[in-house]
Amino acid sequence: MVRRGSPRLSFHHFNKVASRFIIGKGNEEFCAYTNRPKTLADNRNYAFNEVKRLKVQQEWEETLTLPDGQTKYYLWRMYPVLSDKGGLEIVIGYGVDITERKKIEDQLKIAKQEADRSSMSKDIFLTNMSHEIRTPLNAIMGLGKLLSKSDLNSVQKNYLNGIESASSNLLGIINDLLDFSKIEAGKISLEEISFSLETIAKQVVSVLMHKAEERGLSIHVDVDPKIAPVVIGDPFRVNQIFMNMVSNAIKFTEKGSVYLKAFMLEQANEFQKVLVMIEDTGVGIKEEYLENIFDKFTQEDETVVRKFGGTGLGMSITKQLIELMGGTISVFSKKNVGTTISLTFNFRIGTSRVFEKKKTIKNDTANINGKRILLVEDNNLNRLLAYTILTEYGAIILEAENGLQAIERMKKEPFDLILMDIQMPVMDGLQATKIIRSEISQTIPVLALTANAIKGKENQFLDAGMNDFIFKPYNEMNLVTPIAKWLSAGDEVPAPDTEPPLPAQADFSGEATSNGQYYDLSKLMAMGRNDIEFIKKMLRLFVTETPPALTSLVEAYKTGDMASVKYLAHRMKPSINSLGIHTLQDDILKIEGISERTAANDKMINKLITVIYKVIEGLKAEYKL
Fold this sequence. Notes:
The chain is α/β, with parallel strands linked by helices and about 625 residues long.
């Protein structure tokens, strides 16, 4: 320490003192530890030489074992002290005991590992719970709906109404718990799909109309004509929010009315800000409770819980979903007067051409008649439910109780479509579908029947080669509509363009194989065990089915429907890989990730179309297809 008034210590004086007591002596002369490993001295010597050579600070950690067996951790630093001319005067080094810090870091690592394991266990639990509850619930609700079509007396109808009401409430609780868990885990992802906000609003009111009339309420919907006819967002979550809020309004209103109103607040560039209001004349909410209305697992008081039921999660889930969409939610209420919930959304404006395209695809359930459908499901009641529904439409239903049985049946007889449960004993649906795609058929529609409602699992189904998925519990139309769609896929798709339809041209000369073709069938040959009839069948399907899919992809790309582009590219990927179209294997992966139309993406789409047509021409010529 330098006392006040004492002369300043110069480098000369410092060096003189250092030369006597410090310079030239090793670290071991200033430390009490013994039996130090040689590597520690090497670390310091290396650092010292680096400081001298580079004239920059060096830093490293060391672990030392004391004579009493304790382990200590030190952070060492050496840094240069330079003269006015930039020359090295001395090197100063010091160590800091960081043993406590290391212990805390190790504890945090262990805690993180335990948290990760807990999160994984939670996901597994939710997946299994979803499957185990939804599977029997699917049978209860489905068979109940079928029973309602039969002749019942008034007492039986009342009993059945009780069953349907209880099962619907149970499904609502399950959905709330799953949504809450997914949001908490950060696993909610939002779609970017074209839809009509007016259609969703009117559908919600239509679905809940009967519920409102039962309570003697009037229910109304009013949508501002200034709102774009097509907006882009997540229609499933918007529908969920509307259903949740309007259902609550009906539940907490004993007399009067419920309104669902939507207004266009402002428009800027390609976006519209929309205000949606749900108004009721119900019991209202106490002012002091409004501060906690979005808390989880809370309701106004125990009386509300006993009288109206519910998990207390609806408002919390709605708020988090709205905020994920970039919107807001606010609540105004007065006890015994009513409640108004205001929601704001920011939607990108879409184009009606997307809807026009979708209308060209048949969903006529008449085409189910006479089709052979393989139903792969391990639950007897769910097989009975699907069998009963589909046979009413004239389908020929054959059954398998697991994936292995399904594969054995498919090898012996033809089918038009497969309904594949996911979780089954012996062999699950994903494994079975992968085998079907690699050994039996790449084109037969395979639709997943799944009770797993965890968002994000859908990609697993598509990656395994499935075409679509039907969530349990499903009603009659939820089951029949996708089946009709896939049985008629391509029936009304226009003929493909003979030239690339986009302006930017791609240059990919020299990317053909050594025989001048753009395909290599060695993988397909191995897959088909060199069975030429099987090979020709697969090639013929590629030649006939790929051009319509290309046309759909291009139209979706032109209209900005990138979700459809991704989906169609995903469906083409297995065929491109199986036919060894190597020049497209990287491009098809990139096309799956396209988010907007650009000149570079135009070239990539053109390349896809041109190469596919060159492959088709080559296959027709070589195999006389």
